């Protein structure tokens, strides 16, 4: 098909503006480069960081905390760099999310514990921390998640995700604290699981 | 059936010697208590601690190290309380075991990494440490397994198992370091995975 080949040739040399040009992005790119850039473009609007994605809110970074405060009032916030994220009733069946906020170093972090069944009959827990901030800001921090039990400890340390990239891809690639229901049982007390969360700067 | 009831009545009051009486165990027990005691009886012979159980060797605790040295010559031993357990070719398909020995504090520890497919299509790795010694001796130690990657660290700390109880039940109940192939990929280098192993006394 000659016409398509001609179109492809044009598309492979012409520069296009970024999808978020109207929001202020000055970048122009080849057609083939557009998707990768637009995924990480600083001018892309932020989505609501609450897991489960039932909330369709989008807006600027500055508007995220006001959105959470007004639309997700039930989320608890704890102050300090070293807190306990208490997930209650972890034996509830089905896919469940536990969420809380941690405020320290002048920033807000969202702690997420998600129960999923990626493999038939094999429920897993995924715990992760995301910064209400940009990817660049996230790189200045590290977080540690710790399960403490009788003569046992499981620890995961990593860089927080930015809410701009979200946690879904990290969870699907297991780039977070992953544990199964057996481990949860080893560390839980009466169906409640305490996760020690420590944020530090680096 | 009157005769069985009578037998049961006798069995429920008569004391029987432990199965390992001939090996020196002085304990006598009710019929119902025998299985539990015999499982943990100090006079029960030790089995070969190599995972996979293709070796049917049994003997006394003192004979375990000589057995390993003579019958399992390919197992590497490293000296010191802080070593690296290097598992090569972790992407090999199917169920695979990696084994090495660590010698410190005057004792020998067997490090085991096992790849299994407990759930269809979901390969998992299980790493654990067992002491060539009794359960009582094992309680005097703690071990730490650590995977280190780029801005990521996964750590498991626990009490070593005794080879008298073995590692199979701990692995099946996830009471060890558990991670999937995604995580292995995050921490592996060219298909080789280094696990930092630290033994301490407590
Ligand atoms: Zn852009
Ligand atoms: Zn929302
Ligand atoms: Zn006995
Ligand atoms: Zn053997």
Q: How would you sum up this structure, described in words?
A:
Two copies of one chain form a homodimer. Chain A is of the alpha+beta class and 202 residues long. Chain A has six helices and 14 strands. Chain A has helices spanning 2-11, 34-40, 64-71, 135-138, 168-172, 181-187, and strands spanning 15-17, 28-30, 46-47, 58-59, 77-79, 82-87, 96-104, 107-119, 122-131, 141-149, 152-158, 161-162, 177-180, 193-201. In chain A, the strands form four sheets. In chain A, strands 5, 7, 8, 9, 12 and 13 form a six-stranded mixed β-sheet that branches. In chain A, strands 6-14-10-11 form a four-stranded antiparallel β-sheet, covered by helices on one side. A two-stranded antiparallel sheet of chain A has the order 1-2. Chain A is elongated. The termini of chain A are far apart. The interface between A and B is medium-sized, with 25 and 24 residues. One zinc ion is lined by residues 48, 50, 55, 57, 67, 71-72 of chain B.
Instruction: State the helicity of chain A in percent bands.
Output: 10-25%
Head-to-tail CA distance between termini of chain A: 55 Å
Low-confidence stretches of chain A: none
Biggest sheet descriptor of chain A: 6 strands, mixed
**Coarse shape of chain A:** elongated
SSE string of chain A: HEEHEEHEEEEEHEEEHEHE
Q: What is the quaternary state of this protein?
A: homodimer
For the largest interface, the chains and their residue counts are:
A-B, 25 and 24 residues
**Bound heterogens, unique:** zinc ion
* Number of helices in the DSSP assignment of chain A: 6
> Beta-strand percentage of chain A?
35-45%
Radius of gyration of chain A: 20 Å
């Amino acid at each position: 098909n000659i016409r398509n080949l001609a179109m492809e040739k044009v598309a492979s040399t012409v520069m296009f503006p970024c999808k978020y040009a109207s929001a202020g992005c000055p970048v122009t790119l080849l057609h083939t480069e557009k998707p990768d850039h637009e995924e990480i473009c600083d001018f892309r609007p932020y989505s609501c960081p609450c897991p489960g994605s039932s909330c369709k809110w989008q807006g600027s970074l500055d508007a995220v905390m006001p959105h959470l405060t007004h639309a997700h009032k039930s989320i608890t916030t704890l102050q300090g760099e070293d807190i306990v994220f208490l997930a209650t009733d972890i034996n509830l069946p089905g896919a469940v999310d536990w969420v809380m906020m941690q405020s320290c170093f002048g920033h807000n972090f969202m702690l997420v514990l998600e129960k999923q069944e990626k493999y038939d009959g094999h429920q897993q827990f995924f715990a992760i921390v995301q910064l209400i901030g940009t990817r660049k800001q996230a790189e200045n921090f590290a977080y540690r998640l710790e399960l403490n039990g009788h003569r046992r400890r499981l620890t995961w340390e990593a860089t927080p995700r930015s809410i701009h990239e979200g946690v879904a891809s990290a969870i699907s690639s297991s780039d977070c604290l992953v544990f199964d229901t057996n481990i949860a049982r080893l560390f839980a007390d009466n169906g409640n699981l305490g996760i020690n969360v420590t944020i530090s700067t680096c």
